[in-house]
Amino acid sequence: MGKLITLGEHIVKNQDKFPYATGELTALLSGIKLASKVVNSEINKAGLVDEIIGQEGQTNIQGEDQQKLDVYANRIFKEALGARAVVCGLASEEEDDYVAYESEVCQNGSYIILIDPLDGSSNIDVNVSIGTIFCVYRRISEPGQPAELNDFLQKGREIVAAGYVVYGSSTMIVMSTGQGVHGYTFDPSIGVFFLSHENLRIPDNGKIYSVNEGNFPFFDENIRNYLKHCKEYDPASNRPYTSRYIGSLVSDFHRNLIKGGIYLYPATSHKPKGKLRLLYECNPMAFLIEQAGGLATDGVQDILDIKPTELHQRCPLILGSKNMVNELKRFLAD
Ligand code: AHG
Ligand code: MN
Ligand code: MN
């Protein structure tokens, strides 16, 4: 193994580059790290302990059946961050409204966090990799009082840190504080995340495309034409491309980040805004892909330039290798 640098040490080493480096962001990210270890431990037992897998019997504000692990992960991240008193508020896929922490010390926190505590829930019970997605903003409301809705409705361009945990064949945290994207791999034997992928960059070109082809009949014509293009035989342009779709955004994103590729969850006739949520799925992933040299668009504008209006609003998502996203944009312009 190369340099033995832990996630904590690497954050501290870089914290002087954080805007407003007060140590608070470092404490916040260590809260993410701790919660990731706790959730990882539960996920690894999911097959054994039936109170972990399966339906919670409730639905979330999205109208989706909450898996027990969704609710569990949400609680762990909410508690771990609340205990560190650096976030004054949290918004989550699994919370109807945002949570404004009530303690005075939290209300003096400078940051808010948005989180998808468990991404890829449909894969929990079939032992396919899942993840957690998060992004962090500085609060814009006055410190010393509860967080406000506008703290959470900032454009993705204002993100100060974003990342994901992928609970896969190995568990990794991949994140950026605006100085590139770095990957940290968990060593369960000593309970430490080690820097394993410094300055991750997505290749400008790729041949992997990730989409739920089952929605083909519901895509608009430009998207259908692009997907036909991906499947045409043309060795000169490295086609047909390769189709890879896991059904967990975090896992599809992570593979494409490493190998090059494009992920798309476009609008459909029955979901005109697509399925993915802007604030805690599209924005954090768009921040990361741009930090890694890629592009992210809703088909009309950069994801990070969208001004949010609601916590759980959805938006179409196309992101990945620069030249692949630009190729798709040419089909959208037709
Ligand atoms: P979540 O489990 O947090 O609701 O996210 C699931 C998302 C995303 O992870 C994945 O790429 C997409 O839903 C899969 O949707 P389809 O099953 O409709 O393809
Ligand atoms: Mn998700
Ligand atoms: Mn989720």
- Lateral arrangement of strands in the main beta sheet: 4-3-5-6-7-8-9-10
List the ligand species.
2,5-anhydro-1,6-di-O-phosphono-D-glucitol, manganese (II) ion
Task: Characterize the biggest β-sheet.
Answer: 8 strands, mixed
Number of domains: 2
Total DSSP helices: 9
Report strand %: 15-25%
User: How far apart, in Å, are the first and last alpha carbons?
Assistant: 49 Å
- At the third CATH level, what is the topology name of the largest domain? Fructose-1,6-Bisphosphatase, Chain A, domain 1
List how many beta strands DSSP finds: 15
Computed over alpha carbons, the radius of gyration is 19 Å
The SSE order reads: HHEEHEEHEEHEEEEEHEHEHEEH
The CATH homologous superfamily of the largest domain:
Fructose-1,6-Bisphosphatase, subunit A, domain 1
Low-confidence stretches: none
Short account of what is shown:
With 334 residues, this protein is of the alpha+beta class. It has helices at 7-14, 24-45, 68-82, 104-107, 149-152, 221-231, 249-259, 278-291, 322-332, and strands at 55-59, 65-67, 87-92, 99-100, 111-119, 130-138, 161-167, 171-176, 181-187, 192-200, 208-210, 242-243, 262-265, 295-297, 317-320. The protein is 30% helix and 24% strand.
